[in-house]
Write a structure and sequence with these properties.
five-stranded mixed sheet; 5 strands
């Protein structure tokens, strides 16, 4: 039993996770346990993590909500962070998330790290999924999308995020871990810990 095996190894603060003082969830919802992945489309590590975290997300129970927060660490990152929020507002993330990673890291149809950002190319990519490319690019540069990006930056700042991918559980814990499998093991245990804590609080 995987659950029993993992719970046999207690988590070690400072090694497995960092506690976030006064941390808050990014987007609290109906008492669900929030798991955030801070990521970047141009980040090679996020590209390698995505198949694992994507498969893991599909196994999460109904009381856990998984949320992506795009990081904006530099000029190559920002257009893709904007594009994520526009895509999210159009309900396209599920269809486009893996494909956008592939277009940057596999086919190199879109510019990655160290290359000049190309908003028109991003618009053309999303046109394949039904978006109007001009409207999509206009939305990327809108006030509403900037506001979302700033909210994400504030969350990253208060959560102590310094790289990607980073997992944050309920705004309280920043997962450390040795490798991707370890990150997901720790996240599962923190989810169980939060669930137990919520159950105790209700009694």
């Amino acid at each position: 039993n995987i659950a029993k095996a993992s719970s046999a190894t207690p988590l070690v603060p400072g090694t497995d996770y960092a506690e976030i003082q006064g941390g808050q969830p990014f987007d609290p919802l109906n008492g669900k346990i929030e798991v955030v992945e801070v990521f970047g489309y141009v980040c090679p590590a996020c590209f390698h993590f995505q198949p694992l975290v994507g498969a893991w997300e599909k196994t999460l129970p109904a009381d856990v909500r998984f949320t992506y927060v795009p990081a904006a660490f530099g000029p190559e990152w920002i257009p893709y962070a904007h594009a994520f929020y526009v895509s999210q507002s159009m309900g396209l993330v599920e269809k486009t998330h893996d494909a956008l990673f592939n277009a940057i890291h596999v086919t190199q149809a879109l510019p990655g790290e160290g290359k000049k950002p190309d908003e028109a190319a991003i618009g053309a990519f999303f046109a394949k999924y039904g978006a109007n490319p001009k409207q999509f690019v206009d939305a990327m540069d809108s006030f509403a999308i900037d506001a979302k990006l700033n909210r994400g930056k504030q969350f990253m700042l208060r959560s102590g995020v310094q790289g990607t991918p980073t997992i944050i559980v309920d705004g309280k814990y920043r997962v450390l871990g040795k490798d991707y499998d370890d990150i997901l093991r720790i996240t599962n245990q923190l989810i169980a810990q939060e669930r137990a804590g919520a159950g105790a609080a209700r009694k």
